[in-house]
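Before relying on records like the one below, remember that each one covers exactly one chain. Contacts with other chains, cofactors or solvent are not represented anywhere in the record.
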Amino acid sequence: MPPRLLAIGDIHGQADAFDTLLSHINPTPQDRIILLGDYVTGGPDSARVLDRVADLLARGNTVALRGNHDLVFEQAVASQERYDELSDGWPGLYRPETAASYRKIGVTPTRTGILARHGHLFHKFKNWHEEPDAIFVHARVDPMQSMQNQQIETLIWLKIDGPCQNHISQKPIICGHTRQRDGIPRDFGGAICIDTDAKGGGWLTCLDVNSKQCWQTMPDGRVREIEISKAEPQPKP
């Protein structure tokens, strides 16, 4: 089997679905894996997901992008003052289930404990990644700007609101972030979105970029293969 280029969508603390997906796709050392970010919040096992991300990076031939939830998490532990602000009820994107997930792996969820376990990962996350066959981001791109000139706000926070223009590189954009709540990956023309709502209890998706084959898993162990759907054109005002 030739090496595959595999993209995995937003995991959001769903470690069981992530483990099932990795077992099912059974990546070889030659397969390239691109993780699209949002490893934390939503599901019950953010810390275990980060452990698995660390394992994949140590394996080599893996790239881990930074999602908006990951960025907020990084910012929360960047200083004790900021951590104390967010720890009081863990509001916003940095939620109680993230803290609880560290207790489940035997780590006290203090700033020191979190950094000792996963601080090294934050320096390895990328805001975008380019391969000969595709460009990978968490959220979306400005189609008229080179990747070197993209704004972080666009790459990490901006959602897809309709069919996308092709990027000036003419490479397909593979992204997550914009939840496809029906569980179907979407081709928006200039971008393929594979966030299929694992955060909300939906499917976790892996895309073979070259063959367009998709595998999906659920935390309960269900596995299915699915085709990418074309996004519906937006009605004109």
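Helices lie at 15-25, 46-59, 68-76, 80-87, 96-104, 111-122, 152-156.
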